[in-house]
Design a protein that fits this description.
This protein is of the alpha/beta class. It folds into two domains: 267 residues, 3-Layer(aba) Sandwich (Aldehyde Dehydrogenase, Chain A, domain 1); 187 residues, Aldehyde Dehydrogenase, Chain A, domain 2 (3-Layer(aba) Sandwich), CATH 3.40.309.10. It is 39% helix and 22% strand. The chain is built from 15 helices and 24 strands. It has a seven-stranded mixed beta sheet, with helices on both faces. The protein binds nicotinamide-adenine-dinucleotide. Belongs to the aldehyde dehydrogenase family. It comes from Pseudonocardia charpentierae. This is Aldehyde dehydrogenase family protein. Keywords: Oxidoreductase.
Length: 478
């Protein structure tokens, strides 16, 4: 597949003529090619978006809704083809890619309806001393203008839709910069919007490398809002480069699960065996750390290890495969090194730990030091690090003891413990009797601390992609 960029409704090569090959992390075959955008292409995309924003902000909400609902239907119809693309360019199993692709239409629909609910509020100005009934105040919401959406490789369809759909629903024009390793999915989904009747200038996709065009896009004063999902390191850079703009940053994590002595250990083991290995652990809310009470550590590990052993790795396109590859062999080498380093420091590898090409075997590591890199740094791979904590205070201190705060889970049979966890765990999502790896697309979703700023989920994203104006009608005193 030889794809083009989409700038202002036109299918284009890069101004320089440069091209990137997109390869399968499983077998290295070329899945497609895309233009490698440079600064001139980035500039053209923002220029088109400025024109698009002027058109789209004057398009009534009912018309935006109609186009987005049509795009949602197209995304549903094309979900099987989109799933094939996701699996091919990302390496995730076709089962997981099918789930991802099938969620896109619904996120467009949820966002479309939120765009039809841009309510403001009336202001009780007469409550301000010196003001009477002669004035009326209210707020109105309007689009930001140009939204720059930058997305990572791990959910190349869904995470692009979580930005594009709310931005369009709110009346903005969008420039999307998908991850350089997985741009084909984003291009395929963009077609759904354009074929649904979206004016061409309203949605552009620049395929290129963040290190080459990222700074120029982020710093561009014509961009009013940057919505970024990716690593904390790039998020920090964006926050330094952006200048005066609205920013949403969905960043990295090292998500914990706490298992108290009264937990249902079978439930906890099943949930961790799913939540630590989905998408080969390349999920921002993947279970990375499990903190158990010593009284139940042995029984929990006995329940976990056979479940992890049962995960079937292999060709992502195979319907029996439950876990595919990492995004690249380089990443797999990095993940394996982190596991090896933990083992060299005294941790015990109970299962897994080996690697073949871009596949890392599902791994459980016990007796991990909470201050070690396997706890403190984001792993983004298929391994779970288990450590113990003797009491509540040390369990919560461990759960909170990393620079991140995206999502957390606690297993307990005690409501009091659950309430305390809700209050004391510093994470944007807290799950009681489940792991951090759970998301309904409609819920507010976003991290604390080094995991980011702002929330996604259609209602919050639409709100964050609008500006609020306060309006005062000045009558005459009477
Ligand atoms: P990454 O930060 O390397 O890249 C993400 C995107 O940023 C890519 O499109 C890349 O091209 C672009 N980029 C790189 N340098 C840039 C720059 N200087 N300016 C602007 N853009 C730039 O992340 P990745 O490796 O693609 O994805 C994995 C990371 O994403 C993990 O840290 C993971 O936790 C995080 N993530 C977070 C969430 C969340 O909701 N919090 C969801 C998914 C992934």
């Amino acid at each position: 597949m030889s794809a083009t960029m989409i700038i202002g409704g036109e299918r284009r090569a890069a101004a320089s003529g440069a091209v990137d090959e997109i390869t399968s992390p499983w077998d290295g075959r070329v899945v497609g090619t895309v233009p490698r955008a440079g600064p001139a292409d980035a500039d053209a995309a923002v220029a088109a978006a400025v024109e698009g924003a002027a058109v789209w902000r004057r398009t009534p909400a009912h018309e935006r809704l109609r186009i987005l609902l049509r795009a949602a239907d197209l995304a549903d119809e094309r979900a099987p083809a989109v799933a094939d693309l996701i699996s091919a360019e990302n390496g995730k199993s076709i089962r997981e890619a099918t789930v991802e692709a099938s969620r896109c239409g619904d996120v467009i629909r949820l966002s479309a309806f939120e765009g039809a609910h841009l309510y403001g509020e009336t202001l009780p100005l007469d409550a301000a001393p010196g003001t009477g009934f002669d004035k009326i105040g209210f707020t109105v919401r309007q689009p930001c203008g140009v939204v720059l959406a930058i997305t990572p490789f791990n959910y190349p369809g869904l995470l692009a839709i979580h930005k594009i759909a709310p931005a369009l629903a709110a009346g903005n024009a969008v420039v999307l910069k998908p991850a350089e390793l997985t741009p084909l999915t984003a291009l395929a989904l963009t077609d759904c919007f354009l074929e649904a009747g979206l004016p061409g200038a309203v949605l552009s996709v620049v395929t290129g490398h963040g290190t080459e065009i990222g700074d120029a896009l982020v710093a561009d004063p014509r961009v009013r809002k940057v919505s970024f999902t990716g690593s904390t390191a790039v998020g920090e850079r964006i926050s330094r480069t952006a200048g005066v703009k609205k920013l949403s940053l969905e960043l990295g994590a090292s998500s914990p699960v706490v298992i108290l002595p009264d937990a249902d250990l079978e439930l906890a083991a099943s949930a961790v065996a799913a939540g630590g290995y989905a998408n080969a652990g390349q999920v921002c809310i993947s279970v990375q750390r499990v903190i158990t009470h010593p009284a139940v550590t042995g029984d929990f590990l006995d329940a976990l290890v056979p479940r992890v052993t049962a995960i079937r790795t292999g060709d992502p396109a195979g319907h029996d495969t439950t876990m595919g590859t990492l995004i690249s062999e380089t990443e797999a080498v990095r993940v394996q090194r982190m596991i090896d380093d933990a083992a060299a420091s005294g941790a015990r590898v109970l299962v897994g730990g080996s690697r073949e090409g871009a596949v890392v075997e599902p791994t459980v590591v016990a007796d991990v030091d909470p201050s070690s890199p396997l706890h403190q740094q984001e792993l983004f791979g298929p391994a779970v690090a288990v450590s113990s904590a003797d009491d509540w205070e040390s369990a919560i201190a461990q759960a909170n003891g990393t620079p991140y705060g995206l999502s957390a889970g606690i297993f307990t049979g005690d409501v009091a413990g659950a309430v305390r966890a809700i209050r004391e765990i510093d994470a944007g999502n807290v799950h009681i009797n489940w792991t951090p790896l759970w998301r309904a697309d409609l819920m507010p979703y976003g991290g604390l601390k080094g995991s980011g700023i702002g929330k996604e989920g259609p209602r919050r994203a639409v709100a964050e992609m609008t500006e609020e104006k306060t309006v005062v009608l000045h009558g005459r005193p009477w």
